[in-house]
Design goal:
The protein is an all-beta fold. The protein has one helix at 2-12; strands spanning 17-20, 24-27, 32-34, 37-40, 51-54, 60-62, 67-70, 74-82, 85-93, 97-102, 104-109, 119-126, 130-132, 138-140, 142-151, 161-165, 173-174, 178-182, 185-189, 192-197, 200-216, 219-228, 233-240, 244-246, 255-258, 262-269, 277-286, 289-297, 308-311, 324-326, 329-331, 334-337, 340-354, 357-366, 371-377.
């Protein structure tokens, strides 16, 4: 009879409504807020037995008294339940802001690791308490930034430029962060901010952003602005040397540095009938070593190739003419030395203008894989 009496009392005063003093909250990490809950009727047997729940405790938690604590960037829902009634509060925890400044770094060179025609580097910016050995293994505790970068095949070290995050591994981009699993073990790869502690590795994966590298007298400067997976705002700066560790296990390609003794420039007009004029440069290093380059230019240009970056990118302005032969004549980009005539197959030439002269910065690869490096003025 006692059990029957208690059940009857609960049914006699069911919860008709439950409300919270806030339907939404915007908080910063670490802040707390005590949600007030009102149950009708007050005489209900559930009036003092509210059940609280967070949809994502990694964003915000709630205790049995309705005290909400903001944990980390993101969104979640706090639910208060009593009887058959519920009330919810939408919680947004503002993104965190980080600013990191580094003066130590190292880069791991993996060559064309993805077989996509570009060189892969993993650049690590190291905070206090961390060291990286000659195999690229980290030890110690502290903060570091892992940047997964792609560069042209002509580059055997990090070069100046603007790098943008992209899911496509193309030149002058860096990959987003993600988890890679192998044999049941998970690894952080791509671009991320890492914190090594005695408890393990914590990471913030990067989903967008860019950074800039400049280089003077062996000293690199890097400035960047990245966005984390949960919209964390990450500002980076670095200044110092960046030693490179070769992880390919192969001998690096031969690099040929030319010191031109003469440069001959010929205007060939629209010699290939593609609606573009062609300028041919013959750069002589010594009697047996000659680099030939041809530049496409608009039909309106007849004096010299315009300033810009020239690559092997088809028949358009700011393009290099690819190597070919025609009745024994060498067309396009060729390198000749004691080893014979070799086609230039990759690379770029940057033309700039200063004090009435043009400067040419060339970094090229011939068909044997040799890197040809030459700077000249005309």
């Amino acid at each position: 009879m006692l059990i029957v009496a208690l059940l009857s009392a609960c049914d006699e005063y069911p919860v008709t409504s439950i409300t919270l003093d806030r339907s939404s909250l915007t908080m910063n990490t670490g802040e707390i807020y005590h949600l007030e809950c009102i149950i009708q009727p007050l005489s209900s047997a559930y009036a003092n037995s509210v059940i609280w729940k967070s949809s994502d405790p990694s964003v915000a938690t709630v205790n049995s008294s309705g005290v909400v604590t903001a944990v980390y960037s993101g969104e979640c829902v706090i639910t208060a339940s009593a009887g058959n009634q519920k009330a919810v509060c939408q919680v947004v925890v503002n993104p965190l802001e980080y600013s990191f400044s580094f003066d130590r770094a190292g880069a791991l060179f993996y060559g064309d690791a993805y077989e996509i025609g570009s060189h892969n580097f993993v650049l690590r910016l190291l905070g206090e308490g961390l060291t990286m050995d000659n195999d690229g293994v980290l030890s110690g505790e502290g903060i570091f930034v892992n940047l997964d970068i792609e560069l042209p095949l002509t580059d055997l070290k990090l070069t100046e430029g603007t790098y943008n995050l992209s899911t496509e591994r193309t030149e002058y981009t860096f990959a987003p962060g993600q988890i890679y699993e192998e044999s049941g073990t998970q690894y952080a790869i791509g671009t991320f901010v890492g914190q090594r502690t005695s408890e393990g590795l914590r990471v913030i994966f990067v989903k967008s952003g860019s950074f800039w590298i400049t280089f003077i007298d062996e000293i690199y400067r890097l400035e960047g602005h990245l966005v984390g997976e949960k919209d964390e705002d990450i500002v980076l700066s670095f200044q110092g040397t960046i030693p490179v560790i070769d992880k390919t296990g192969a001998n690096p390609p031969e690099t040929i540095t030319l010191n031109p003794s003469s440069v001959k420039v010929d205007f060939l007009g629209d010699i290939y009938g593609v609606g573009l004029n062609v300028f041919r440069h013959s750069i002589t290093h010594n009697q047996d070593t000659v680099l030939q380059l041809e530049f496409y230019a608009p039909l309106s240009v007849t004096e010299k190739a315009p300033s810009g970056t020239y690559q092997f990118s088809g028949t358009n302005t700011y393009a290099l003419v690819p190597a070919s032969t025609d009745n024994g004549l060498f067309r396009g980009a060729w390198f000749t030395d004691v080893n014979g005539n070799k086609q230039i197959i990759k690379g770029q030439v940057v033309i700039s203008q200063s004090d009435g002269k043009q400067s040419f910065q060339c970094r090229l690869i011939d068909e044997t894989g040799r890197i040809i490096d030459v700077n000249y003025a005309h």
